[in-house]
Amino acid sequence: MNGSILAALEGVYKNYAMGDAEVRALDGVSFAIGAGEFVSIMGPSGSGKSTCMNLIGCLDHPSSGAVFINGIDTSRMKAGELARLRNRTVGFVFQQYHLIAGMTVLENVMLPLRYRGLPPRRRRELAVAVLDRVGLSDRLKHRPRELSGGQKQRTAIARALVASPALILADEPTGALDSETGKSVIDLFAEINSRGTAVIIVTHDPEIGKRARRRITLRDGKITGDTAADTAAAAGEAADTADAAAGIEQARASRFVFGGESFV
Ligand SMILES: Nc1ncnc2c1ncn2[C@@H]1O[C@H](COP(=O)(O)OP(=O)(O)OP(=O)(O)O)[C@@H](O)[C@H]1O
Ligand SMILES: [Mg+2]
User: Fold this and answer.
1) Helix (H, G, I), strand (E, B) or coil at 96
2) Residue ranges per structural domain of the chain
3) Tens digits of residue pLDDT in 93-119
4) Quick one: which atom of ligand 1 is closest to the CA of 252?
5) Which residues contact 140 (CB under 8 A, 6 or more apart)?
6) Is 195 helix (H, G, I), strand (E, B) or coil?
7) Which residues approach ligand 1 with their CB closer than 6 A?
8) Which atom of ligand 1 has the smallest separation from the CA of 247?
9) What whole-number distance in Å separates Cα of residue 21 and Cα of residue 7?
10) Which of 3.30.70.20, 3.40.50.720, 3.40.50.300, 3.40.720.10 would CATH assign to domain 5-258?
11) Are 64 and 257 in contact (CB under 8 A)?
12) Does residue 220 come out as left (phi exceeding 0), alpha (psi in the -120 to 50 range) or beta?
């Protein structure tokens, strides 16, 4: 961490109304993420991990408390400003990829640049370069259904990276992959982080959690741990298994990002 704070939650509560009842998904959560950090968020199902990610990524608002991005209180920003900030600062990766079925790999990755006012040729160059970085140069014209799970996730990572965000948010990015493929995806995140991009990964897998330099643990909407992970493990290249868990928040979140187009 180099001192500058990219994102921070301060005293955040998030309640969801469920008919007459209310679910408290986050119960007074505070933490800050510095530039270049590599953080895992762990905790049982329902503990509030995805809710946390959606708030950091400004896909949702807290019921109370504040979310800061680059030191700016996001509750004070207009919707358009917030969308621009999100597009420039944060890249999202979801368990179920959320690629657009009717577009090729290249078109999916070019999509976030659509809002940047770049000429098409420049968008294409940037997307080709980032697809090369994730090892997909030979799949540019494939559609998502013609890819393996690992290739879909690499496409999604390329899409998250293409606009050079300062922070990548990945919610169980290996949850739908076999353990070997999951490991290579985590290696890719580690490589991305080593070049200066902050990465936050939600995972159920302790081995993946160990790869991050800092681990935040949630339980019942509260932080129960926020520690430097075992640095030997974080520095080493050892991580293996991945697991599967469903996420309902991701689909909702993706509608904010991509405006309700169809996903696979
Ligand atoms: N849109 C919603 N409406 C109502 N309740 C919700 C909503 N989203 C999440 N919740 C509830 O908030 C709590 C936290 O959910 P969240 O999705 O953040 O958990 P999680 O830690 O990501 O779990 P998992 O590991 O299963 O993905 C859960 O009890 C969940 O049922
Ligand atoms: Mg979740």
Assistant:
1) coil
2) 5-258
3) 999 999 999 999 999 999 999 878 889
4) 1
5) 104, 105, 106, 128, 131
6) coil
7) 16, 18, 23, 25, 43, 45-51, 245, 247, 249
8) 27
9) 31
10) 3.40.50.300
11) no
12) left
CA pair distance 234, 210, nearest whole angstrom: 6
Q: In angstroms, what is the C-alpha Rg of the chain? A: 17
- What are phi and psi for residue 31, nearest 5 degrees? -165, 160
To the question of pTM greater than 0.90 for the whole model, the response is no
* Atom 6 of ligand 1: nearest residue by CA position: 16
> pLDDT of 60-106, one tens digit each?
999 999 999 999 999 888 988 888 888 889 999 999 999 999 999 99
Report the alpha-carbon distance of residue 192 to residue 212 in Å, rounded: 12
Q: Retrieve residue 139's tokens.
A: 């799949």
Q: How many Å apart are CA 107 and CA 143, to the nearest integer?
A: 9
Grouped pLDDT means (10 residues each) for the chain, 264 residues: 81 94 96 97 96 94 95 90 88 95 97 88 96 96 97 96 95 93 93 96 90 95 89 38 28 38 42
